[in-house]
């Protein structure tokens, strides 16, 4: 399959991309400054340009963009909207725009995060982004055309974030990277749609 991975040069991407290639997929890596093709999830024009450049794809995997930490007491609606721009609206745009460019039966695999389910100080934006991605995925799965599929992977702590958040979530263990990669592979190669995959270790 021909697959474009947005954020393929990042922490998760650096493990997922070789795994996809080892299974004989033709992988194009996209990012703002990294990879084969330039795209910024905060810019609709670059998303359109990316799809035109890569041509019809069988899979779109997004593991890019983060929610910023915030301060609830001073947070404004405008700041919240700006925080959601790349990770929520950008990933939604990848699907809304991608439905017109991707091949029949193509899959979309998005990335959210544990703050959708686990509140923590300073992640109002992060939680809202991931919760919105979960609901977007459920709705999009009902209406995507031409047999297209969509799923979202919600990772808990991995990489550097283990140290930052370890101990704050009682009973929560970091998700092993191999397990996380398996979830993405399953979304790309499987036949399920409309799933929120909670990779919580
Ligand atoms: N790491 C964790 O513990 C963890 C836990 C839960 C959820 N997540 C989520 O998983 C996703 C990936 O995490 P990660 O740790 O692999 O991130 P990462 O190491 O920071 O890598 C992010 C990748 O995305 C690209 N990127 C960033 N902003 C972008 C944008 N606006 N448009 C296009 N590409 C962009 C970056 O490349 P360029 O700089 O070249 O654009 C980079 O390749 C994020 O959504 C993150 O919030 C991560």
Overall, the morphology is globular
Helix and strand pattern = EHEEHEHEHEHHE
- What percentage of amino acids are in beta strands? 15-25%
Q: Largest sheet, described in full?
A: 7 strands, parallel
- What CATH first level would be assigned? Alpha Beta
The domain count comes to 1
Q: What ligand molecules are bound, each kind once? A: NADP nicotinamide-adenine-dinucleotide phosphate
**Low-pLDDT sequence parts:** none
CATH level-four homologous superfamily name: NAD(P)-binding Rossmann-like Domain
Mean model confidence by pLDDT:
95
What does this entry look like structurally?
With 201 residues, this protein is of the alpha/beta class. It has one domain (2-199): NAD(P)-binding Rossmann-like Domain (Rossmann fold), CATH 3.40.50.720. It has helices spanning 13-22, 44-54, 77-98, 124-143, 161-165, 177-189; strands spanning 2-6, 26-31, 37-38, 59-62, 107-111, 149-155, 195-199. Strands 3-2-1-4-5-6-7 form a seven-stranded parallel sheet, with helices on both faces. Helix 3 (77-98) links the parallel strand 4 and strand 5. Helix 1 (13-22) crosses helix 6 and helix 3 runs parallel beside helix 4. It starts with a strand and ends with a strand. The model has no long low-confidence stretch (mean pLDDT 95). The structure holds NADP nicotinamide-adenine-dinucleotide phosphate (NAP). Residues 6-7, 9-13, 31-34, 39-42, 63-66, 86-87, 111, 113-114, 155, 157-159, 161 line the site of NADP nicotinamide-adenine-dinucleotide phosphate.
């Amino acid at each position: 399959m021909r697959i474009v991975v947005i954020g393929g040069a990042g922490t998760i991407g650096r493990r997922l991309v070789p795994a996809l290639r080892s299974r004989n997929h033709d992988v194009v890596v996209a990012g703002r400054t990294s990879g084969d093709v330039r795209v910024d999830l905060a810019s609709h024009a670059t998303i359109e340009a990316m799809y035109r450049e890569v041509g019809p794809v069988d899979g779109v995997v997004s593991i890019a963009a983060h929610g910023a930490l915030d301060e609830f007491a001073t947070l404004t609606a405008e700041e919240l909207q700006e925080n959601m721009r790349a990770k929520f609206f950008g990933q939604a745009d990848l699907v809304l725009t991608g439905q017109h460019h991707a091949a029949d039966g193509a899959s979309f695999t998005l990335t959210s995060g544990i703050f959708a389910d686990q509140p923590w100080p300073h992640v109002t934006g992060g939680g809202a982004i991931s919760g919105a991605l979960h609901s977007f995925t459920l709705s999009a799965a009902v209406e995507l055309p031409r047999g297209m599929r969509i799923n979202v992977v919600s990772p808990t702590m991995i990489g550097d974030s283990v140290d930052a958040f370890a101990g704050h979530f009682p009973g929560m263990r970091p998700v092993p990277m191999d397990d996380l990669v398996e979830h993405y592979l399953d979304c790309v190669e499987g036949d399920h749609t409309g799933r929120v995959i909670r990779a919580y270790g």
